[in-house]
Specification:
The chain is mostly beta strands. It is built from 6 helices and 32 strands. Strand 26 and strand 27 form a beta hairpin.
């Protein structure tokens, strides 16, 4: 499997990875601009590095993240500004005493002395915000807090840098004013304009440990967020391929959690209905969900622990040819059985069918089938803490190979047995962690099905039918009477 993530062994890294002091000689950052877009469960960060080479023939550039920041990051990608092709990123392991986590980015070309390049590092953090206060009444707003470091640390000297923190709501309760930064400031240490808070510009930022220990400091933003803070604790997706039915069935078992402030006092149904009537729903209450499903879905179903939930509506769009880009999606609108408040959970199962020809290809020359299965159906604004994707192939499938759109925690093969099976169906299971809207990729599985395997189900059904017929035929001719007439 081709992967853009690679982790070098610790001994190899200790021999190859340059220290901050050595790396600082190769480049100079003429400017760093970090933009943080605040959300609920997800926080999107885009950092632009204006790079200038100080030595000839440079092919790699190092980026430093704090270990706390790296632990919260579930997705990252480096690109040249204005280009779409991602660059290879290698994680450099560090010893436990280090406070930074280094990433090595392969540059698209060698840089000569004084050569410049603009690199963009995009990351998505999960669970980076928390409710503050931790409890809120039904009528009260939802307030969250986000914390980060004041300076963007780099192995190279930085001439000027700034950090912009953007909130989706203009209601920003408070933000930190940094201290002891007068020697780096010319205009002002922090400013607020509308929904954006800007720290800097700060000048002549050094790379040594003494600077980090003396001047690096946490800053926080306390803001209002107008949408539920949702987390999917567990997602169990099962995709079953049926050649006889020409169908791909996808079923998701979802355990949803509202990570917003917990309810202060008792829940009032009257207050909830009043808020709905006046269209002033509290932001920390989840009352409905909207999901984008593939075109051409049929037989959609939605149920929870108590049974079928009728408060749902599906708007379908026609199927598109395999390989074509879908311009529209089927929309599934869900309303949980009860409003989900902060700290509450909701478990449900969502399933649907799609035509197999929309996602299955066949290489007639080699007799290979290739099926494309989405990793997940993203719920807007959520993070999936623990995901398992199980793809069940037709009975008798052999030579199974697969490729994941991003590294999985684990993958395994097993046998799934259901009705009308004889030996069972091969199944591929993938395990993932901390999935976001950036992880809505496609898993490709290739396999072969011999002609005998195609006929196995028909032969087994025919054998069972004729065996039952023969048994009935013989039973009618057995005389069980005690006395003959």
């Amino acid at each position: 499997m081709t992967r853009r993530w690679r982790t070098l062994p610790l001994l190899l890294v200790s021999a190859l990875a340059p220290s901050f002091s050595l790396a600082s000689l190769a480049f100079e950052n003429t400017a760093i601009v970090r933009t943080i877009e605040l959300g609920g469960s997800l926080t999107h960060i885009s950092t632009t590095y204006a790079v200038k080479a100080l030595e000839p023939g440079q092919t790699t550039y190092q980026i430093a993240l704090s270990k706390v920041e790296r632990a919260k990051t579930s997705w990252l990608e480096a690109k040249v500004k204005g280009q779409t092709a991602p660059l290879d990123v290698t994680e450099l392991a560090e010893d436990e005493s280090s406070t930074e986590h280094l990433l090595s980015v392969s540059l698209p070309k060698k840089l000569a002395v004084n050569g410049t390049l603009n690199l963009v590092l995009e990351t998505v953090q999960t669970h980076a915000t928390y409710p503050f206060p931790e409890q809120a009444a039904q009528k009260e707003p939802q307030l969250l807090k986000y914390e980060t470091g004041l300076f963007t640390i780099s192995p190279y000297t930085t001439l000027v840098q700034r950090t912009k923190i953007k909130s989706s709501s203009p209601n920003i309760v408070s933000y930190t004013t940094p201290h002891d930064v007068d020697s780096f400031v010319r205009d002002g240490s922090v400013t607020k304009s509308g929904t954006t808070i800007t720290y800097g510009p700060y000048h002549d930022i050094q790379t040594d440990a003494d600077f980090v220990a003396k001047y690096q400091q946490p800053v926080s933003v306390h803001y209002s967020f107008d949408h539920p803070v949702l987390e999917v604790k567990t997602l169990r997706r099962t995709a079953e391929i049926s050649h006889w039915g020409s169908n791909l069935n996808i079923e998701d078992k979802i355990h949803l959690h509202n990570a917003g402030p917990t309810l202060k006092g008792h829940f009032s149904r009257l207050e909830y209905q009043s808020q709905n009537y006046f269209r002033k729903q509290a932001p920390h209450i989840l009352s409905e969900l909207t999901l984008h499903l593939p075109p051409g879905v049929t037989n959609a179903y939605y149920y929870d622990l108590n049974g079928n939930v009728s408060t749902s509506h599906l708007r379908t769009t026609p199927s598109v040819a395999k390989g074509s880009k879908a311009m529209q999606y089927s929309v599934l609108e869900l309303r949980p059985r009860y409003p989900v408040l902060g700290g509450w959970n909701y478990s449900c199962t969502i399933g649907f069918d799609t035509p197999l020809q929309d996602s299955l290809g066949y290489d007639a020359k080699n007799g290979i089938y290739i099926v494309a299965v989405p990793v997940m159906t993203h719920i807007p604004g959520t993070v999936v803490d623990d995901a398992e994707v199980k793809i069940i192939l037709p009975e008798g499938a052999i030579n199974v190979e697969f490729i994941s759109p991003f590294p999985e925690l684990s993958s395994s093969m097993s046998t799934h047995i259901t009705y009308l099976d004889t030996t069972g169906r091969p199944a591929v299971t993938f395990a993932y962690k901390d999935l976001t809207y950036k992880h809505t990729g496609i898993i490709y599985v290739s396999y072969q099905v011999p002609v005998s395997a195609h006929l196995k189900k028909a032969m087994s059904v025919s054998t069972a039918f004729f065996s039952l017929f023969a048994l009935a035929f013989m039973a009618r001719r057995v005389d069980l009477s005690l006395h003959k007439k």
